[in-house]
Design brief:
This protein has 421 residues and is mainly α. Helices cover 39% and strands 7% of the residues. The protein has 19 helices and eleven strands. The protein has helices spanning 13-16, 42-55, 58-62, 101-110, 124-127, 132-143, 166-174, 188-200, 204-207, 237-242, 247-256, 268-274, 281-292, 309-322, 324-327, 345-348, 353-361, 386-400, 409-417, and strands at 75-78, 81-84, 112-113, 116-117, 156-157, 225-227, 230-232, 258-259, 262-263, 366-367, 373-374. The strands form five sheets. Strands 1-2-5 form a three-stranded antiparallel β-sheet, with no helix packed on it. Strand 6 and strand 7 form a beta hairpin.
Length: 421
């Protein structure tokens, strides 16, 4: 997906190669891949592969804006430098046209291409959970695409992160056969949802915090992670319940991009637009079951506002001046124009960074399945100063999100001055 992948190649990679930490090469069980009961025809395998490639959100990183499908070129920014999505069309010179099905499986399962180690900007740490049946179907679909002779761009990394051999050591330490679960369950839907969420959807790659070497923190699965200026929110059962999510709301969100808690925007919009909207109802339900668990927590009601009246009055003035025309005088939103602020998941988020960045940068127009759309939201970076934006953010958080009015002028300033890439 077009999200920032937090990776590190380890400066002491050569030493790690000798560390004797185990190879991590044991085969992964078939998991809940729902393998077909009978052998598929080639056409059926390709169609299955199409579905799986969408579920894995491959287009988000491998199809550049205005570029050829799956020909690469998408920029993936990270603290360690820039990566670029690669060409995965069957072109023999620049794509995967010379790869076998075994090569493809090894790349997704082990992070090793025929000629090099891959960086975990390609989320093999999650794809490792894919079954061979599914990777073969994905391979069959990709290999029947039109070959595109689009040259790959090399990562722009400084030392020591440009030393690919060090990834062998990183893999010894951090490439695991299974990801930890954030929820509890044992139902067929929960097990299927685990496969869709952890392996195919690779949600943990953005929503799980990272350690100092870029590895996912297995002790805090899906509890949210900072991605430069923005944050991937907490989507653990407790985190979702704290912002009012139910299983039905999650299913609506994955299928349409819009729910009572708001709409998909920023890095999440392509996930819905290119991936989750194409999942069948059973799989969308399974993902929702897995995220909340077989016994989902009760969604928390919106807390009443608790903030200084004078400060709220200032924030209210700013809201009426620049927000109410689209979002409604009382934050109720306007259909086909702007989502509600009252109970909005971003406004209810304990971390205010996404709210602040949205106010600074604005949000592009969003077209959703069917005839639904949300108009573009202008950014206010040039129209409002840090103090004004802090007052507005505090009003929104306290009045419509049940959060403390604790956004400072300095916190706005930091995000204003942080580069977007």
């Amino acid at each position: 997906m077009t999200t920032i992948r937090w990776i590190s190649a380890l400066a002491a990679g050569s030493a790690l190669l000798l560390a004797g930490c185990g190879s991590g090469s044991s085969d992964v069980p078939q998991a809940a891949d729902l393998a077909p009961a009978t052998k598929l025809t080639p056409a059926q395998q390709i169609e299955r592969g199409r579905y799986l490639v969408r579920a894995a959100d491959c287009a988000a990183c491998h199809t550049a804006p205005n570029g050829a499908p799956f020909a690469g070129g998408v920029e993936l920014a990270s603290p360690f430098g820039k990566f670029y999505g690669t060409n995965i069309t069957p072109d023999k010179d620049h794509g995967i046209g010379k790869w076998s099905a075994d090569d493809f499986y090894k790349a997704l399962h082990d992070g090793v291409a025929p000629d090099k180690h891959l960086y975990p900007a390609m989320p093999y740490t999650s794809y490792r959970g894919l079954s061979r049946t599914d990777t073969d179907a994905m391979y069959a679909y990709l290999m029947q695409l039109k070959p595109m002779a689009v040259q790959n761009r090399e990562p722009e990394l400084g030392f020591p992160y440009n030393q690919r051999f060090a990834m062998a050591g990183w893999n010894l330490l951090f490439r695991k056969d299974a990801l930890p679960d954030a929820s509890k369950g044992e139902s067929p839907a929960w097990i299927r949802g685990r496969y869709l969420t952890n392996a195919l959807g690779h949600c943990a790659e953005c929503h799980t915090p990272r350690g100092k070497f870029g590895q996912m923190d297995g002790g805090r699965p899906l509890t949210g992670s900072a991605l430069a200026r923005v944050g991937a929110p907490d989507i653990s059962p407790a985190g979702l319940a704290a912002r009012g999510w139910t299983a039905a709301d999650l299913q609506t969100f994955f299928s349409t991009g819009i729910a009572p808690q708001g709409s998909a925007y920023g890095e999440m919009f392509p996930v819905v637009h290119l991936s989750s909207r194409y999942l069948n109802a059973a799989d969308v339900g399974a993902m929702s079951t897995y995220l909340l668990g077989d016994k989902p927590p009760v969604p928390q009601p919106l807390k009443p506002a608790n903030a200084d009246a004078g400060a709220m009055a200032t924030g209210r003035q700013h809201y009426l001046a620049v927000c109410a025309g689209c979002h409604g005088r009382e934050g109720e939103g306007k259909p086909h124009v702007a989502v509600a602020m009252l109970g909005n998941s971003t406004v209810r988020n304990a971390d205010p960074r996404n709210l602040i960045v949205s106010m600074l940068d604005g949000i592009e127009r969003q077209d959703f399945p069917g005839l639904e759309s949300m108009q573009d939201m202008p950014g206010f970076a040039t129209r409002m100063n840090d103090a004004e934006l802090a007052a507005l953010a505090n009003y929104l958080r306290a009045s419509y999100g049940g959060q403390p009015a604790d956004v400072t002028t300095d916190s706005v300033k930091v995000l204003r001055e942080t580069p977007s890439h």
